[in-house]
């Protein structure tokens, strides 16, 4: 056991340093002065260099060679560390540092280009980031598909081919349901303005209702909502729009799903490889089931309707049923993060196909905007008006997160499976949700999935919690039942 003990002591410091690096990213999005960007790029690079050195330290290889797993937890820790070591040792230290510096610079350039609707100003930086990620992917993949090497960073075990098959099964039924819904009369929508103070106060109440622990977390504002950290420091951000309080409320619930997963992991796994979510897809399953299957349910929106009336007074929606339809209104829109449940996955599939083509070299960066706009018209039936509503809307590619986008739809698929199992386990759940009480739902998720962190592989994690291997059927059935009911199909 001496080798395992030494390895885990070394790993604990590595995990702690990774948390510090993550806090630099949180600060860059929330608090950092605008002029600090060049220095922050250097700081990111320095941290990446230190972390890469630790992850490739020859002693890690020696410890892995000698260590024995005494139980399932030790076996899982060794699996994670071995995977990280194998990947990291294939990536030159110079490349890891350059990637950290480039993505920090790219983030600032993307934000400015987005604000100024200037795609041309961002493309050279995007090309640089893509080239570096291609180099990294080639080093890791060897003779295998480079895109799979990038995807594996976020969803271990998944492949572009397997996801393509799953998404191909989703697409026709989503497109058909979308067409049927958009052919029906639309529900009422919100009108008027909703003050920021009221939105943020109700946003905090929603976070608490879904179990977010503010003793080990905090809520801040950011352009792009996100969750950051794990263990005893798990932070989220949200955003406000005076004309659209749902953006604030459901961004908050979504990020609380991510944060609650991290806060729910058994504290015995703190600062170990098991002390974080199993994958980005599993992580997204938590944020999506919190936001959609629970937060947008008929029962919970009935409670939220009363909370909004208490906060904002009469806002023009007649009753709880009309409010439920309003919350789940399907309408044309450009923005992925603001898309309704029905159309959200079509936004993700667009990005998945484009980034696979970019990584493969089948699509030039200079042609990306045109390819995006053409695909958007084909999928949604109307044209992109501004780059900020199109190819510049997401932060991900500026941060080098190629392979990340498909985990959003995979998370929805996982959430569909988990929701089906949850409803079977707690058949009277709507009675709770109608009172704004999510404790039995979130408690079931914590007991069956969240507490285990990275103990199991992603597919094993969902299979253990749901009782069956994940597939797209439950998500499609849920969406078709829900929107057929709302729109009278």
Automatic annotation (TrEMBL):
**Function field:** Broad specificity carboxypetidase that releases amino acids sequentially from the C-terminus, including neutral, aromatic, polar and basic residues.
Full protein name: Metal-dependent carboxypeptidase
> Which InterPro entries does the protein's record reference?
Peptidase_M32_Taq
Cofactor binding mode and count: Binds 1 zinc ion per subunit.
Q: Which residues bind Zn(2+)?
A: 254, 258, 284
One GO-annotated biological process of the protein: proteolysis
The record, for Pfam families, names: Peptidase_M32
Q: Name one GO molecular function term.
A: metallocarboxypeptidase activity
Could you tell me which PROSITE patterns the record lists for this protein?
Answer: PEPTIDASE_M32
Source species, domain of life: Bacteria
> Which CDD domains does the record associate with it?
M32_Taq
Catalytic center residues: 255
Q: Which family does it belong to?
A: Belongs to the peptidase M32 family.
Keyword Transmembrane appears in the UniProt entry: no
Cofactor(s) needed, names only, are: Zn(2+)
Q: What class of enzyme is it?
A: hydrolase
- Record keywords: Carboxypeptidase, Hydrolase, Metal-binding, Metalloprotease, Protease, Zinc
Q: What does it catalyze? A: Release of a C-terminal amino acid with broad specificity, except for -Pro
Keyword Protease found: yes
Q: Please state the Enzyme Commission number of this protein.
A: 3.4.17.19
